[in-house]
């Protein structure tokens, strides 16, 4: 019997991340490294991608201290991205050593704390050996300067950058122990902890954590949508519910309120899950699709506000949303909860009001 399935026919065999990074474009490789750095937030004050013309040998950087506050002495790490079809050799990167030495010599930026070479094929034996032996690296850089660095550092200096005088003295005193390699496997394993991994490599989303118990005390962040619910319940029961404690126990309004809070918190957890596992904006887009799918029902005539909110929740549960990744890990309770997220806004132009002024 054939072992092929529909998924293989549609998309082919999955490409493992370690193989996929080898077919990235140079720009995609820099983006991948920038994404990887998002899991290092505790190590860096900020990160930036500078790769391109005029980057002076800085592709992706992580700032330990603020460049604006300490323009001449900020602490930073450099991640030099090289996407070649072979493990990096010394001849691939002599110019990068030269750029760092030259631009720190003229004071364009301070010497980094660490300088990492980041390549999908890793580093070859010769370059790895040089990084482990800083004195040999310094010696070989000087030997190879004229061939690989003199005319490769900048085109703004006529005749190139000669290794002589104060620059030669600077390089003789330069600490070449700051150079390291970053293993591709380490990058992929740590990138898996980022919110970009599923979009970059596929393979599905991680399991969503269990939703905790709903807090007994109402948070200040809930007051708007709860106030709107109380208005809806008041209209339905022809009563005046000012506080949640006013709701009669055992009645439909009280039961609905408990479900609404549970769903609100479940949607809040979905929002956090999206922030942890997907690129920015995915939850907001999901919320927007629900909003556009039910807002006309909000505007329709209803017997009372309680009927309106239940009708909106019901429609949200059955909306056909197929393109958003969160459809894979959300359910009807999340969608109903998002309706209350949409109502949890007290701005004058918010359309999610269960009892409009002219309904009173």
Automatic annotation (TrEMBL):
Entry-linked InterPro entries:
ABC-3C_CTD6
Domain called ABC-three component systems C-terminal: residue spans = 222-346
What Pfam families is this protein classified in? CTD6
- Tell me what this protein is called: ABC-three component systems C-terminal domain-containing protein
Record organism: Photobacterium damselae subsp. damselae (Listonella damsela)
């Amino acid at each position: 019997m054939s072992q092929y399935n529909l998924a293989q026919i549609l998309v082919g065999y999955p490409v493992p991340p370690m193989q996929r990074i080898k077919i990235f474009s140079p720009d995609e490789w820099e983006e991948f490294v920038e994404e990887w750095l998002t899991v290092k937030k505790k190590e860096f004050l900020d990160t930036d991608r500078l790769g391109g013309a005029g980057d002076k040998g800085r592709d992706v950087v992580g700032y330990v201290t603020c460049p604006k506050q300490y323009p001449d002495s900020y602490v930073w790490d450099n991640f030099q991205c090289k996407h070649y079809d072979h493990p990096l050799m010394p001849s691939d990167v002599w110019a990068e050593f030269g750029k760092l030495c030259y631009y720190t010599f003229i004071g364009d930026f301070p010497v980094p704390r660490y300088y990492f070479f980041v390549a999908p094929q890793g580093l070859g034996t010769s370059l790895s050996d040089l990084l482990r032996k800083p004195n040999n690296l310094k010696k070989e850089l000087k030997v190879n300067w004229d061939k690989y660095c003199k005319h490769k550092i900048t085109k703004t200096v006529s005749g190139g950058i000669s290794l002589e005088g104060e620059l030669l003295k600077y390089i003789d005193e330069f600490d070449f122990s700051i150079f390291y390699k970053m293993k591709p496997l380490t990058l992929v394993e740590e990138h898996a902890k980022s919110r970009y991994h599923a979009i970059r490599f596929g393979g599905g989303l991680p399991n969503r954590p269990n939703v905790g118990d709903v807090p007994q005390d109402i948070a200040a962040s809930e007051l708007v949508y709860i106030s709107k619910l109380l208005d809806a319940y008041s209209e339905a029961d022809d009563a005046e519910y000012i506080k949640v404690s006013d709701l009669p126990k055992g009645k439909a309004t009280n039961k609905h309120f408990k479900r609404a809070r549970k769903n609100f918190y479940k949607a809040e957890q979905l929002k956090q899950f999206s922030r942890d596992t997907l690129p920015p904006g995915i939850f907001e887009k999901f919320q927007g699709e629900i909003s556009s799918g039910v807002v006309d029902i909000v505007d329709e005539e209803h017997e009372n506000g309680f009927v309106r909110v239940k009708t909106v929740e019901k429609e949200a549960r059955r909306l056909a949303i197929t393109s958003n990744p969160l459809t894979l890990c959300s359910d009807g309770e999340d969608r109903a909860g998002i309706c209350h997220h949409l109502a949890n806004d007290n701005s004058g132009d918010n359309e999610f009001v269960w009892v409009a002024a002219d309904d009173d």
